[in-house]
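Incident log, support desk, overnight shift.

02:14 A customer reports that sequence design results differ from what the structure should imply. Their input is reproduced verbatim below. On-call engineer (initials T.W.) acknowledged and began investigating.
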């Protein structure tokens, strides 16, 4: 018996016609039918047809003109077709929740949000556009204060969020300038995926969320230079073709220290600013073969504090930051798409008191191998199978040279993980995303089932459900509730690792092209989580000595997106409750914000001539209910030994007694930000001028209270604000 398999299919890449840059998650549809697929994160697609004949393909992607072509399929044929889309200027776009009608009907994307570079740029920003600051406007994402870039997703602490750059694990992505900036500048970004819960089996190792940043490959057709200069830094980006494929490079550096140095030279003053940060991203892609691409990415982000005392020859040198590399191999063979990632990353801190007096170093280092394959089974059906191995090393060193005092500790964990995921539609109204992930660590095996379901109530209404079990084998040591931190210290968890389960339900309404309403409710249960103490720890301590706790997070979120002529409006609201339990103590952590509201209004001029051409104006209003804090219960006079007068002398001073950590609530916070940008375009170059005003009406949001006892013996309270005045930022963007 001979089994004859006849297939009719088309496969290939969707890319930018001008640059050759692959376009992830583009939509490939067959006109006059409901057949269609989406390209994967590398722009590759595979579409199977039921029979031979003529079909008209339509391809769409946000910010590009639609592409159409009629193709003829004959028996036993897989047609290879690379599609180049022509970009068209879009000055303002809201955050994309469902890119098209196809996504609305087919994708099980509950708690998944995709952000593009143009969407980052046209949001009001503090000093300069920032990837993590744009994520703050999404429902379910909370920050501690106006300037913070640390993200708390649906009741989880920042170390519960997995962050990657081209599948390089990034451990402290917001370490620039005491947490004000992330190490990802918008020029490097091709696409950002954010999962706030219920994420699929491909992702593991974290309890709360995923942020996956994909970088650009580089312009395949011509050299391109981008220059962006603001008040505190300059970004230079260069990309173009090379004999073997493409290259891409982007670098950013603050220059306040250089300006202060120049000012001192001009005015003959001995002044300096001993701090700066920089980050570098380099990438090259070898694209010499029909079915195979090889790319390598290098990243480095570093903060440097270099201070010398005038009176002595002592010098303090403190450096901290990320360095990482990844080699990626992709191979496409019809309905099979293979991916291999070999990556290395290290976050290290290095402190030295020179000349050679005291030194300390602490870091986390990760060697990773990820391999997975996509089996495209037909229209919107896919099986994904993968394996992952990580080798994670932890070290800290402390010493006094030329003395007997020194300390050095090292630790290591090697988790092995594998996953299986199936996407399928058994009928026109059902869509499933079923997965299973396994984790082997320290002779223990953990199973993580995942599931996502979409049910179509009617033509324009969907119900969605997702959930799963998640484990985490590393954690940070320093307090998760601190307002300011230079960086996080990490520790391994080898036994009784923390775990959580998610359940998310959603309602989705199609309101028109690019317009929709989404409501989600979630419940997340934590077990065996490690909770650090209130005080900052400089050096590693065993995970077993940390406090063990449990808890839960629950809430409801809404996102409404609407267009009215040249206006774009969207409303993001979240109500959440977060609780932690340590033994018998149940409390709300400091990042437990009950209400979080963002209202965004943007205007993009449709004028073809005159001053209004290329003009964009956007405003963001944010409101959040007050965070919990330890309100004082009273005060008393405390007696201690006077360290200056000796053990025989006592000093008496008033001491304020703090209540339980969530006994009070700070006042609500709110703020209005404004962004204005004017683009001037020509055939050879584009130039843009922008101005941002943060805290337009000078709202003094309370960061914390400072309590003291006055001369009359009464407890007094002083409100401390971090952003009491409007902050105005201006800059220039140039594209050659």
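02:41 Re-run completed on a clean worker. Output:
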């Amino acid at each position: 018996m001979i089994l004859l398999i006849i297939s009719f299919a088309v496969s290939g890449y969707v890319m930018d016609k001008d640059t050759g840059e692959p376009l992830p998650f583009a939509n490939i549809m067959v006109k006059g039918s409901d057949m269609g697929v989406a390209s994967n994160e590398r722009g590759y697609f595979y579409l199977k047809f039921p029979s031979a004949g003529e079909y008209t393909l339509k391809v769409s992607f946000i910010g590009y003109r639609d592409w159409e072509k009629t193709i003829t399929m004959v028996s036993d044929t897989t047609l290879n077709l690379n599609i180049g889309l022509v970009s068209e200027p879009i000055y303002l776009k809201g955050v994309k929740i469902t890119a098209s009608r196809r996504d609305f009907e087919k994708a099980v994307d509950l708690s998944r949000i995709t952000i593009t570079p143009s969407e980052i740029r046209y949001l009001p920003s503090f000093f300069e556009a920032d990837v993590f600051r744009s994520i703050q406007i999404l429902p379910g994402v909370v920050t501690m204060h106006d300037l913070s870039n640390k993200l708390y997703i649906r009741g989880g602490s920042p170390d519960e969020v997995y962050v990657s750059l081209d599948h390089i694990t990034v451990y402290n992505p917001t370490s620039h300038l005491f947490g004000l900036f992330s190490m990802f500048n918008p020029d490097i970004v091709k696409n950002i995926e954010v999962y706030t819960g219920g994420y699929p089996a491909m992702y593991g190792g974290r309890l709360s969320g995923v942020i996956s940043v994909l970088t650009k490959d580089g312009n395949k057709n011509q050299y391109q230079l981008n220059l962006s200069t603001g008040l505190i830094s300059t970004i230079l980006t260069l990309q173009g073709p090379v004999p073997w494929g493409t290259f891409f490079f982007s670098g950013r550096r603050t220059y306040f220290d250089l300006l202060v140095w120049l000012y001192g030279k001009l005015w003959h003053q001995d002044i300096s600013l001993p701090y700066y940060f920089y980050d570098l991203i380099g990438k090259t892609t070898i694209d010499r073969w029909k079915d195979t691409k090889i790319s390598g990415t290098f990243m480095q982000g570093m903060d440097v504090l270099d201070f010398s005392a005038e009176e002595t020859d002592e010098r303090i040198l403190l450096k901290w930051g990320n360095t990482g590399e990844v080699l990626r191999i992709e191979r496409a063979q019809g309905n099979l798409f293979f991916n291999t990632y070999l990556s290395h990353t290290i976050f290290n801190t290095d402190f030295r008191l020179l000349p050679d007096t005291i030194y300390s170093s602490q870091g986390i280092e990760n060697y990773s191998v990820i391999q997975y394959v996509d089996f495209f089974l037909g229209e919107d059906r896919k099986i994904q199978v993968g394996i992952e191995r990580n080798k994670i090393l932890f070290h800290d060193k402390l010493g006094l040279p030329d003395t007997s005092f020194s300390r050095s500790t090292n630790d290591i964990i090697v988790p092995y993980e594998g996953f299986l995921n199936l996407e399928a539609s058994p009928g026109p109204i059902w869509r499933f995303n079923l997965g299973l992930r396994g984790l082997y660590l320290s002779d223990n095996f953990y199973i993580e089932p995942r599931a996502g379901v979409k049910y179509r109530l009617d033509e324009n209404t969907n119900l969605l459900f997702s959930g799963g079990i998640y484990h985490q084998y590393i954690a940070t040591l320093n307090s998760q509730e601190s307002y300011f931190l230079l960086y996080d210290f990490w520790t391994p968890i080898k036994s009784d690792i923390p775990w959580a389960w998610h359940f998310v339900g959603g309602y989705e309404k199609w309101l028109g092209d690019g317009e929709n309403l989404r409501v989600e409710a979630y419940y997340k249960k934590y077990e065996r989580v490690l909770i650090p103490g209130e005080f900052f720890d400089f050096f590693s301590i065993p995970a077993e000595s940390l406090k063990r706790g449990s808890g839960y997070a629950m809430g409801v979120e809404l996102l409404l997106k609407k267009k009215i002529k040249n206006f774009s409006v969207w409303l993001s609201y979240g109500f959440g409750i977060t609780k932690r339990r340590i033994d018998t103590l149940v409390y709300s952590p400091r990042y437990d914000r009950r209400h979080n509201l963002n209202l965004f209004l943007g205007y993009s001029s449709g004028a073809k001539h005159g001053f209004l051409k290329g003009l964009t104006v956007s405003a963001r209003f944010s409101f959040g209910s007050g965070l919990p804090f330890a309100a004082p219960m009273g005060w008393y006079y405390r007696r201690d030994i006077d360290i200056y007068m000796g053990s025989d002398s006592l000093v008496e001073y008033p001491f304020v007694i703090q209540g339980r950590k969530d006994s009070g609530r700070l006042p609500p916070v709110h703020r209005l930000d404004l962004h204005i940008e004017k683009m001037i375009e020509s055939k050879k170059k584009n130039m843009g001028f922008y101005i941002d005003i943060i805290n337009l009406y000078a709202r003094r949001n309370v960061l914390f209270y400072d309590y003291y006892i006055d001369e009359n013996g009464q407890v007094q309270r002083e409100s401390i604000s971090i952003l009491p005045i409007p902050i105005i930022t201006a800059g220039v963007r140039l594209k050659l």
